[in-house]
Structures are given as C-alpha cells and as structure tokens.
UniProtKB/TrEMBL annotation, chain A:
SUPFAM superfamilies: Cation efflux protein transmembrane domain-like. The chain crosses the membrane at residues 25-46, 58-74, 95-117, 137-159, 180-201. It is a multi-pass membrane protein. Residues 27-229 form the Cation efflux protein transmembrane domain. It comes from the Bacteria. Keywords: Membrane, Transmembrane, Transmembrane helix, Transport. This is Cation diffusion facilitator family transporter. It holds the Pfam family Cation_efflux. It is found in: Membrane.
TrEMBL record, chain B:
InterPro entries: Solute-binding_3/MltF_N. PANTHER family: AMINO-ACID-BINDING PROTEIN YXEM-RELATED (PTHR35936:SF19), MEMBRANE-BOUND LYTIC MUREIN TRANSGLYCOSYLASE F (PTHR35936). Gene3D superfamilies: Periplasmic binding protein-like II. It comes from the Bacteria. This is Transporter substrate-binding domain-containing protein.
Length: 326, 159
C-alpha cells in the first residue's frame, strides 16, 4: 500500500496511525449500529420513544459512512481541474450528515407530538422466548442498554482521534456517540413510564429525544457551514481559534526582512491552506520567499499548501489583533 | 449527567420490585376483577366464533375466552355485533375484549390493541393467517394477562 496522504500532504507517523485506527473504528461503529438497529426493530413494538431512539441509531450510521467515503476521496492529489485537491469532500460529508440529523430531529418531534395530541395509548404486551412469557418492555430496556453503553466508549475513542487528525466529521460523530447514552436512558424511562400506566410518558420522552437531535443537527450544520464559508481556522471542537493561526503570523514576523505580516488561514477539512501577506523592509528575492514558505510548512503537518504574497500594505480583513501585536 | 443515569437505573430497579409493571392506564384488569364480569364482543366468524343469540355463542375463540374468564374468576358477558361496532366499543371502554377470527393483517388490528398471534390457519384462499384477539388500546396489564393465558393454552409456556 502507498503511504497515506491527505491530498498531496504526507502524513506523519502519528497521524497515519490515527487514520488507520479511525477507519477501523468507523467500521466497528457501522457493524455495531447495524446490530443495534436490528435488535431495536425486533423489540420496539409501538413505543414512540423506542422509535425515536431507533431512528437516531439509524442516523448515526451516516457520519462514519461519510467519514469513510471522504477519507478515500481526500487522498487524491490536486490536478488542473481540482487545484485545491479534494479536501472539501470532508466538509460536504459533514454538511450532508448534519442536515440529515436536523431533518430527522424535526420528524421525530412532529411525529411524537401528533401521537401525543391524538392521545393514542401505546399498546405493549408480552413476548414469549424459550417458553417464558414476560412483558416486552423488559426486553426493550435490555436492548436500549445495548444500544447506549458501548457508544460511550466508541465516542470517546473517536474524539481522541479526531483531535489528532483535525477531523470535524469524526469529532461530530464522536460527540453524537458519546451523548447517545442520554437517548437510550431517556427511552428507558419512557418505556418504564409506559409500563406504569403513564401512556403519555413515552411520547413526551420521544419529543425530548427529538429535540436533542435537532440541537445536535443545528450545532453541526453551523460548524459545517462555517467550514465551507472559509471562516478562520478553529480547533476541532470549533470553540477556539486554532493556535496555528497565531503561530503563522508570529513565525513570519520573526524574519529579519519582514516589517509586518498577516495571513488568511482556511481549514480545508484536515489540512490548512495558508495565504500569508508580508510587508518587506526593502527589496527581497525569491530565496527569502521560499525560505519563509518552508518555515511555515515546518510548523505543522497540517500546513502544506502555502502562498507567500509580498505586499506594500497588509490587505483588510486580516485579524487586527493577530496582525498587529507589537 | 452520570448521576442522572445512575438514578434512572435505581428508579427502574425500585419500580421493578413493585410488580406494578405493566399496568393499565384505564384499569381494565382491575375493573374486570372487581366487577366480576368480562365483557366480550363477539363478531360471528365460524369456526372461530358463532352466535345464534346473545347467550348462545360458541366457537374455538369463545371457548378460549370462557377459560380466560374462569381463570380470572369472573363471568363472561357476550355482546354480539359487527366488527366495526365492536372496535368502536373497545375504544369507548364498553368492551374488555373482542373476538371474531381477527387476523394480524386485518385493518381492525391497527385501530385497537391486538394480542400476539396465538394461532395460524389458512384463510379461504389458502393463505396462512395469524389470528389475534382485540383489546382496548394501551391496557397493557390486561393484554399481558390475556397473552399469558393464550400462551399456556397453546402450549407456548413451559410450566
């Protein structure tokens, strides 16, 4: 096998390892979710909360699939038709997955609200397994535990790898998995409530699950759109400005021939594309520009595609605080 | 958040110990016992159900329900009617159970609560049909009691 790359960017050993693990985890995740989906389908009966949890499980197939597809596509290097290579496929995968999430959340809330309003009492009787007759709700609870608990660990592992790979899809996926126990235990409460004769408990919980899916969806659509809009590069969780943004400027300003420097760093998915503007102190040559380029590329594996633009004055729109710290 | 999960677990254990799960939102099972009477809707569909008058009913399902009433220690009261009126009466709470050769795939099964299929038999066209009985929607304790009884009668339960 050829050495794994993101476009033309070669991956350091740590990232290669993380990518390998992330792919394996995505496959494990898919296999596990399919088994959970089948198990829930067999026992869900007419519980609205179970149905909501089931739909959420089905949907949680999308992010790992999107990740696997995107991980294949972004390996391709740039060509005349795709001068920025295929990095954006990860952003597109992220946006599609989050829109599906949002849509499904709206559906679950609407559907459960209708059930609640029509005051339809969920009918859940018994099951017969191996010659024993017992209330189906008990089996539902066991299955819900199976769909909820392993996800906590899968989710955590994904979050760690997402950090190393700077991968938003993996991050979103991990967050969803990690929060899945809330869905599962919510649905359990719904089933128990239903068993106690509170027929509405089930629908109410389903609405709450739907609402949390909507919240996830909105959060993810927001980060995905922000990525595609070329906002400032941020950390994987989207909470902070990525430290490399500052480092690029600092590193350029340390050069003796540079009077001022500012840059636009855009997050292409895994790797950054850097357009750096430098105001030289006097006349400069190609050597200085190439040296500056190499200097930036050496900062981090994510920085590979760098343009250095010598200018008389810094263009507008670069972060003032970042561009003029002195 | 962890605490929340733990509390849920604890709550479910406590509730499980109470033995009140499942229960009926409209207390059908309790009402049948206190009334001493099981109100049964019968739509004549031989060989499952036959009716020559309100008290002259027969058929395999009638016999099954007779046994169920006996097990609950109550008398059956038979209400003969068409399928549509029986389903409406189930919804109103006027009936406790409705029989009449209902199958799992019949449209009525979606409008009321249905038991698990307790028997399969070919219909007139030779297709295998799964037979069910209808109960009020969401009366899960009553439904479970009936299903338990049917399992015993059809030998699905090891005793």
């Amino acid at each position: 096998m050829s050495e794994p790359t993101f476009g033309s960017t070669k991956l350091p050993a740590e990232q290669q390892e993380a990518l390998r693990k992330a792919k394996r985890l995505a496959w494990i995740s898919i296999a596990y979710v399919i088994s959970a989906v089948v198990a829930v389908l067999l026992v869900m009966g007419s519980s609205q909360a179970m149905r909501a949890a089931w739909l959420e499980d089905m949907l949680s197939l999308l992010p790992p699939l999107a990740f696997l597809i995107a991980a294949r596509l972004i390996r391709r290097g740039p060509d005349a038709e795709h001068p920025y290579a295929w990095h954006r496929s990860i952003g597109i995968a992220h946006l599609s997955a989050s829109l599906a999430l949002l849509g499904m959340g709206v559906f679950v809330v609407g559907d459960s609200a209708m059930t609640l309003l029509s005051a339809e009492h969920p009918t859940i009787g018994t099951m017969n397994l191996f010659g024993h007759t017992f209330w189906q709700g008990w089996l539902m609870i066991v299955v819900l535990a199976y769909t909820g608990i392993p996800n906590i660990f899968i989710g955590r592992a994904k979050l760690r790898l997402a950090e190393t790979l700077h991968d938003r899809v993996l991050h979103a996926d991990g967050e969803m998995n990690k929060d899945d126990w809330a869905t599962a235990s919510g649905a359990m409460i719904g089933v128990i409530g239903l068993g106690l004769g509170f027929w509405w408990a089930d629908s109410v919980i389903a609405i709450a699950i739907g609402a949390s899916v909507i919240r996830d969806g909105i959060r993810n659509v927001r980060t995905a759109v922000a990525g595609l809009m070329d906002t400032r590069a941020r950390t994987t969780d989207g909470k902070h400005i990525h430290p490399l943004v500052h480092e690029v400027n600092r590193s350029l300003r340390e050069l003796t021939w540079v009077r001022d420097a500012g840059s636009r760093v855009r997050d292409l998915g895994h790797v950054f594309h850097v357009e750096a503007f430098v105001v030289p102190d006097g006349p400069i040559g190609i050597d200085q520009i190439s040296a500056a380029r190499d200097r930036l590329a050496a900062l981090d594996w994510k920085i590979d595609d760098v343009s250095i633009v010598p200018v008389a004055e810094l263009p507008e729109g670069l972060d003032a605080e970042v561009a003029h710290p002195r | 958040m962890r605490l929340f999960a733990l509390l849920c677990l604890l709550l479910s254990l406590v509730l499980a110990a109470c033995g009140t799960i499942p229960s009926d939102p409209k207390d059908t099972l309790d009402n049948v016992r206190s009334r001493g009477e099981l109100v049964v809707g019968v739509s004549p569909t031989p060989p499952w159900t036959t009716a020559e008058g309100p008290d002259r009913v027969g058929g395999t399902e009638v016999e099954l329900i007779r046994g169920f009433a006996e097990r609950l220690g109550v008398r059956p009261r038979w209400v003969v009617g068409g399928e549509q009126s029986l389903v409406a009466e189930l919804e109103d709470g006027a009936l406790d159970v409705a029989i009449g050769g209902f199958t799992k795939d019949s449209p009525w099964a979606a409008l009321a609560g249905a038991t698990r299929p307790y028997a399969t038999a070919p219909d007139k066209k030779g297709r295998e049909q799964e037979h069910i009985m209808l109960v009020p929607m969401g009366e899960n304790a009553f439904l479970s009691e009936l299903e338990r009884y049917l399992d015993e009668q059809t030998g699905k339960t090891t005793r």
